[in-house]
Amino acid sequence: MATTGTDLSRMREMNQLSIVWALRGNPPSTVTELAGRTGLSRPAVDVLVQALVTDGWAAVEEPGAKSVVGRPARRYRFRADAGHALGIDIGVHKILVMLSDLEGNLVRTVRRPADPEADPAARLATVDETVDELLAAAGMTESDIWGLTVGVTGPVDASGRTSLFTPLPGWSTADPAGHLAGRFRCPIQVENDCKLAAVAERWKGVAQDADDIVYLLAGIRTGAGLILDGTLRRGHGGAAGEIGALKAVRWLDAPGHLAACPGVPASARPGEAAAWVFQAAREGNREAKTAVRRYTRDLAVGVAALVLALDPEIVVLGGGFSRSADIILDPLHRELTKHCLRLPELRTSTLGDESVALGGLRLALDDIDDRMLSAELAAPRAPRG
Amino acid sequence: MATTGTDLSRMREMNQLSIVWALRGNPPSTVTELAGRTGLSRPAVDVLVQALVTDGWAAVEEPGAKSVVGRPARRYRFRADAGHALGIDIGVHKILVMLSDLEGNLVRTVRRPADPEADPAARLATVDETVDELLAAAGMTESDIWGLTVGVTGPVDASGRTSLFTPLPGWSTADPAGHLAGRFRCPIQVENDCKLAAVAERWKGVAQDADDIVYLLAGIRTGAGLILDGTLRRGHGGAAGEIGALKAVRWLDAPGHLAACPGVPASARPGEAAAWVFQAAREGNREAKTAVRRYTRDLAVGVAALVLALDPEIVVLGGGFSRSADIILDPLHRELTKHCLRLPELRTSTLGDESVALGGLRLALDDIDDRMLSAELAAPRAPRG
């Protein structure tokens, strides 16, 4: 069997990559162990791993005292801190920024409140301040960041804007990627908050074992994010999951049943009103229980539409109202039973309000991995950096 | 760079496959041409292609007279007729069986009418007779068939049955795969008719250029099949696309507007009634136009639910009513504009009532290809045969 020059060049690339993947997610490894994992010869591994150390992808671990006979073997580890990623949640009420290394280990999280009525310039200024605080606290600069994702509310179009619809004031023409490109030179993604939350549930949440997931954001707003065959469903124009725009689905009306419940304190803001109703229902208040039943009845129509369209494995209940899953899940399940041919499993999110930033981190890390898998392995630095 | 034994064995398999793929879909090729296409050396190609001829995957073409200097080079072609596939549409009113070679070239089609009220045993007997007629006409036996797919109406569960729902009398416990396994030894797939029609549109229909497709079956029944990221969406339990089960979507009521149109001949069967209404609307009949408007209004709710959930590139209008697309498409487009954030392109199917059997052929061919790509290349015979 003849092997051409092209084959050899491809094979060297493949072999370098297989060393990187054999190092990642494993404890520090010897050349012999790497040879075993990759099927490559020891001399070949030795050459390849030295090159990875030179390039900054791998580090040598000082030999321990475990080997009792002769000189202990040198061990190599993947340098997960060779680069970092950011997930930035630009929410209605908060800015949340999370920093991780290349293996997704969380390094630092910084959060600042945002004014719901702030215009895009003011909101982006808060983003900048939050990023400043995080980088300073981590002892890093922008060039340490290899990839970042911004989460926003509303479907994100190809230009990274929420031109179709967004509840954030003035935000339909805002360009968060363009703004951040002024300081970060790494690739910047912008993605819808529900989609990022869905990604987070599969990465670190309650849906790690599933490939077909409907994520339901249940809160003052109602929304959905879809993972299909293990892949985030963006849609041809970035607008997948926007079933709530259909009037027949009644998601726009659903939270109103909670706000309209008799007995809600007049001074309560929407989120507080909902919390009051859930607590009252928990304590047996008949009117509150009716309000919750009406809410879940309307919520269920949109969930059923997604379940019937996609037949997922799991529906994850997330968003602010998921803290009251104890009284939402049962009536939601009953309503879904009426509508659906077959019911997926219902699970409650445990990620709290970090899910959007977490999902952003995951997308940024995926993007970094994709670039590593293509031509850029030989140069372990921030791409475009 | 050392190359281990495992690498070499994998490489031999890969190289055999690359010869097969370099032969397929190309005119008869010389060893030199194959070497150019695959990047392998001429001597290596010579050895590999001889083995493929011996095994029955490739055939030698007699040299033509084109080479004017010296002996013309031998040419090899992929033996597309080494095996065949069947697509079987078990419809309410007809049984349609299509036969193709391994490259999807249609060899023969046989169709027989079916009694809508026939029980499963009678319907499967008609399937057998139709298959008998086709095999006899093609001069083949069951062992010439390497893969087959059966299309049925209703979502198909993991056992190949339509246990959740089907309009075919008695069919919810019928086992078409089990029945056909009595005569065919190749793998047998059972799939929902709308799903197969969607596959056919991407293979040979109006959606060949798209990866994200909602196929709409518009006829006496209304249904949908989804292609997402180029892959048929089956759903976790085989029930994707069943949005019509949701009452808020009004698909169950939609065709009734046509049947209820004043002036429809009392003797007309449902399909004839619809055709009468479409023709009357075409001629300007005001009541018929109202009926069509009501029909498309209800049809649009379900289409909008799928478009909002998935944000596809294309919606294909198929099914019996697609013959009247000239008067359905415009009002459907207007209704969708009201509901959707962004509109996909609307196209009309041109495959007629062969789309289900065609989609079945495609799935059977995909299955054969998958088996070829795994361990079975070295033995070019019907798997399990």
From TrEMBL, chains A, B:
Query: Which Pfam families does the entry mention?
Result: MarR_2 (PF12802), ROK (PF00480)
Question: Which segments constitute the HTH marR-type domain?
Answer: 11-63
A single GO molecular function, which one? DNA-binding transcription factor activity
Top-rank taxon of the source lineage equals Bacteria
Which family is this protein grouped under?
Answer: Belongs to the ROK (NagC/XylR) family.
Name of the protein in question:
ROK family transcriptional regulator
Organism from which the protein derives: Streptomyces mesophilus
Task: Give the organism's phylogenetic lineage.
Answer: Bacteria, Bacillati, Actinomycetota, Actinomycetes, Kitasatosporales
